[in-house]
Amino acid sequence: SVKHLFGLQFLRLKMTTLTRQDLNFGQVVADILCEFLEVAIHLILYVREVYPSGIFQKRKKYNVPVQMSCHPELNQYIHDTLHCVKPLIEKNDAEKVVVVIMDKEHHPVERFVFEISQPPLLSISSDTLLSHVEQLLRAVILKISVCDAVLENNPPGCTFTVLVHTREAATRNMEKVQVIKDFPWIVADEQEVHMQEPRLIPLKTMTSDIVKMQLYVEERAQKAS
Amino acid sequence: MVPPQCVYFRMLYHYLDQKRKEGSARLHATYLVSGKFVENGTTSHKVSVVREDQLEDAKSKMSLTVSVHVYSVQKAVLKDSGPLYSADYDAVKENLRNCSRYSAIRCADAVPRSSAEVQQACETTQAPPPETEQIKANHSNLASKPTSKQPKGIMGMFANKNVSKNQDSSKEIKLEQKEVTPVVETSKTKPAPKTNPVTNFFAKQAAKKPDKSIKEEVEIAQTSSSVDEKPTSPPPKAETPVKEELAKDAVVEKDTSKTKRLEHSDSEEEKNESRRKKRRRIKKPEPDSSDDEVIPDSPPQLQEKRDPSPSPEIQVKKEPVAVSHSDELSDCKRRKRRRVLKSRTFVDDEGCIVTEKDYESESYSETEDDFKFSQPTPKNPNPPKPSTGKKEEEKKSKKAAAASNKSTKQASIMGFFQKK
């Protein structure tokens, strides 16, 4: 289940308080991004039929309908994953968050790559900023929901995993510190990271004052193995 | 005489047909089906958006199919209706107050019925009012001319704005527009009242399709056999009732907080005690008054007054009565109330979810744990003990003192002294 269902409007309120109190603005951006990634991952699983559509339920995010899973273990996995990713995003250590869809042999067939970059000096000026961000995120969500148009169908029996590409040596710290108990991060296998002859399909780019994000898909040329 | 919007339906259909014959692109369409629908003996006019594969099914369920036309064309198979709504969300939002501005249906003779006429119509007609009456339109046309009724929403298909956003996405609007513009030239030769909406629409080059979207929302809400089950309520309609409620609550709260501030300056202890109870949601936490207070278990009358009720106004009235009661029963040792820092999540008047921490009165029995008062009350048998008590109590009293200093300055500062 989605633990915080705060709309971005909440963060607007939170932010004005934060600037007065001088708290970490990176946290706000990380919150926004992790909320978004949670919705996006659920939506990808729905649209790409990684799981049967029966486990999904229509929910509202950014004032538009989105499909989110009701399966508790799946939700917990996604939530825990993003919980671990959040500190990386806060420090701007996360370069890419990748949702990899793999076939039965654990070879990736599709990789949804979210490239994230935050400007070094973050500043918030007005309320309209966040509603603009909401609008941009809505557009990305919309694009994910119709990405079927540009992608080939996946073979049956696919699984998924989430990879994080970090800048520099952030991974070393991650291995040492378990953010969530019994939920360790491990260095990804080469075969999960790289794909044979990928086709690059750009989906959406969003640029805002607080974050820039690019979403594209790397697709294996021949999916059926 | 054919209404101009028929032209667009035909264009869309023509486009779809052509592309399919060419075989160049795999296109999927959704259709808008409207007609008479009989359910449990009641006849209603049903409008629904269905996927192509469900089209025949939907048509067969209707006793009389009034209109079928292509609603949207997209490359992707739509698994659910979400994208249809999301695609023009921003356009709808901008035109919320002007929904019928770009409506294609105009009829000078059609005026909204007076309530008397409506009542009369309800009495005379057997059938229940059509479901689409939710949409503000010239509904008087509906009952009398079902065959000529065309959903207004199709105008929205040709939104310019979404072209830039969804280049290769759900609705192939761009292409349609190019094809439609030559038709506009020819349509200008038609009688003036009919072309006005058409030329206006294209002249303005505006990209608003509010009617369609509202229709869309209604349709999506009404679809039974089509894509999904859960209706999405129109966001403006949902938001405004919530906001109204919240605004009301906020106003009520603000009033009471003002009265409380006035009372606070008096700094009478009895008033402090009872005032604490009233406050459910405060902008300025006031834990300055005594932590505990003796209240009796019985009588229930007093208990009721002590319990925080959702309407602070009622509590304001009860305050003087409660004060007098406390005098009588204060020397009994019973359940006490203490102020506890609690975190509350609520939706404020802007529709933002806010988590606030403040002190709330909590009832607990004396034997449960030690407690202390920060301010003595003359009738209280337990004088304050600042040096004793648990760590939490100490912390609380310190914070109470700190808060009392700062409560006049900033509202939410207390929240930052606590770890989450």
Automatic annotation (TrEMBL), chain A:
<feature type="domain" description="HORMA">
    <location>
        <begin position="27"/>
        <end position="217"/>
    </location>
</feature>
<keyword id="KW-0227">DNA damage</keyword>
<dbReference type="GO" id="GO:0005634">
    <property type="term" value="C:nucleus"/>
</dbReference>
<dbReference type="InterPro" id="IPR045091">
    <property type="entry name" value="Mad2-like"/>
</dbReference>
<dbReference type="InterPro" id="IPR003511">
    <property type="entry name" value="HORMA_dom"/>
</dbReference>
<protein>
    <recommendedName>
        <fullName>Mitotic spindle assembly checkpoint protein MAD2B</fullName>
    </recommendedName>
</protein>
<dbReference type="Pfam" id="PF02301">
    <property type="entry name" value="HORMA"/>
</dbReference>
<keyword id="KW-0539">Nucleus</keyword>
<dbReference type="GO" id="GO:0016035">
    <property type="term" value="C:zeta DNA polymerase complex"/>
</dbReference>
<dbReference type="GO" id="GO:0006974">
    <property type="term" value="P:DNA damage response"/>
</dbReference>
<dbReference type="InterPro" id="IPR036570">
    <property type="entry name" value="HORMA_dom_sf"/>
</dbReference>
TrEMBL record, chain B:
<protein>
    <recommendedName>
        <fullName>DNA polymerase delta subunit 3</fullName>
    </recommendedName>
</protein>
<feature type="region of interest" description="Disordered">
    <location>
        <begin position="119"/>
        <end position="338"/>
    </location>
</feature>
<dbReference type="GO" id="GO:0006297">
    <property type="term" value="P:nucleotide-excision repair, DNA gap filling"/>
</dbReference>
<dbReference type="GO" id="GO:0006271">
    <property type="term" value="P:DNA strand elongation involved in DNA replication"/>
</dbReference>
<dbReference type="GO" id="GO:0043625">
    <property type="term" value="C:delta DNA polymerase complex"/>
</dbReference>
<feature type="compositionally biased region" description="Basic and acidic residues">
    <location>
        <begin position="240"/>
        <end position="265"/>
    </location>
</feature>
<dbReference type="InterPro" id="IPR019038">
    <property type="entry name" value="POLD3"/>
</dbReference>
<keyword id="KW-0539">Nucleus</keyword>
<dbReference type="Pfam" id="PF09507">
    <property type="entry name" value="CDC27"/>
</dbReference>
<feature type="compositionally biased region" description="Basic and acidic residues">
    <location>
        <begin position="208"/>
        <end position="218"/>
    </location>
</feature>
<feature type="compositionally biased region" description="Basic and acidic residues">
    <location>
        <begin position="168"/>
        <end position="179"/>
    </location>
</feature>
<feature type="region of interest" description="Disordered">
    <location>
        <begin position="351"/>
        <end position="420"/>
    </location>
</feature>
<dbReference type="GO" id="GO:1904161">
    <property type="term" value="P:DNA synthesis involved in UV-damage excision repair"/>
</dbReference>
<dbReference type="GO" id="GO:0003887">
    <property type="term" value="F:DNA-directed DNA polymerase activity"/>
</dbReference>
<keyword id="KW-0235">DNA replication</keyword>
<feature type="compositionally biased region" description="Polar residues">
    <location>
        <begin position="135"/>
        <end position="150"/>
    </location>
</feature>
<dbReference type="InterPro" id="IPR041913">
    <property type="entry name" value="POLD3_sf"/>
</dbReference>
<feature type="compositionally biased region" description="Basic and acidic residues">
    <location>
        <begin position="315"/>
        <end position="332"/>
    </location>
</feature>
<feature type="compositionally biased region" description="Low complexity">
    <location>
        <begin position="400"/>
        <end position="412"/>
    </location>
</feature>
<feature type="compositionally biased region" description="Basic residues">
    <location>
        <begin position="274"/>
        <end position="283"/>
    </location>
</feature>
